[in-house]
């Protein structure tokens, strides 16, 4: 029989970080007035970190009094302490650190080839620090947008900016925006900015990249225009010129004819004069996206839910004239309390409501949408409560995680008279279809025992979860 003693092994190894005196590596980190020396063991560093496995095996390492001396001035002491906790202890509580240091940890873990730590930190920033990332976008993009492994975080940041781009397009630091980031933004179909404002921004940004140019275009020479054209060469073709009004085109775009490629300019000119649609410009109109401020669900999944509200397929591309929804937060369990009474007090209306639920010990996101709200006035007739609310368009759903655009499950109501169980006198916070999806204080039930909804939204045998957080939004057409 094999005996397993992992816990005591980890405890003994982790104690070496602070208590052992047989270290053979001294690592100096930081620079200027923020430096610190850490003592470590080469055998552990080499076993746990691919970077140190290579670096400490090199014949170029410096030794002093039989001690390996190592320097990492580009990693600050707080971040390197986090790295050592991960290496020695195999655990790290990111909630105890400032987000600035966690971002630096992402950069450090990439440099030190700590893939497991890198992936965990990236997911933490996406799932728990979206607001901070949005508010510090300029700082974030200088830190991480060149890292090859950060595609997931980059996409998340760009997606967030597209939903609320004012912080970029009205920023006083707009000139610092990297061209690659700007390119990543303007080529997206979901950038929620008027096309003429994007054009104006590119002109302003381009001028700032050429200090000798000046803002008075009346003094520009042909070579000045050519320089600006080269600066904006990869950006201008991604402007949807046909989405600009004729007035704005003639007043704001035409004066910059010299910086627009001839084939594009001629087709756009013909479009505004004759109404002839361009042949070589195939860019589709940008699609204004629905907006939600949620701590549970990523914004990219809200377009899927919006399609479901419109009775469309999950992945159907939303069109320019499709209904746009604004999701107004009316209840958040982590703030208002996760219990029946809190939910009922906040959501007692006959409006369209979307509910999102995050549960413990699972990455699943569950939810439901009702066109009729939850709590109609319960009338009594001969002592019998009118408990059920009718709706033709209610549905419940689940996503496997916050990046799931393939395996989500949708279940629409099929017995419309039982769309919502109206528990004005009952024991539920909400109840879709008599336990198809229901909240009973901190327990979420997914039984669908009566089949009032088409399918179960749980793929396994779990028919209940412990609610970690829950949000409810009033759904408003814009």
TrEMBL record:
Positions of the BTB domain: 23-96
Organism superkingdom: Eukaryota
Sequence ranges assigned to domain TLDc in this UniProt record: 295-476
InterPro entries noted in UniProt: BACK (IPR011705), BTB-POZ/Galectin-3-binding (IPR051481), BTB/POZ_dom (IPR000210), SKP1/BTB/POZ_sf (IPR011333), TLDc_dom (IPR006571)
Annotated Pfam families: BACK, BTB, TLD
PANTHER family tied to this protein: BTB DOMAIN-CONTAINING PROTEIN-RELATED, HL07962P-RELATED
Protein's UniProt name: Serine-enriched protein
Species this chain originates from: Rhizophagus irregularis (strain DAOM 197198w)
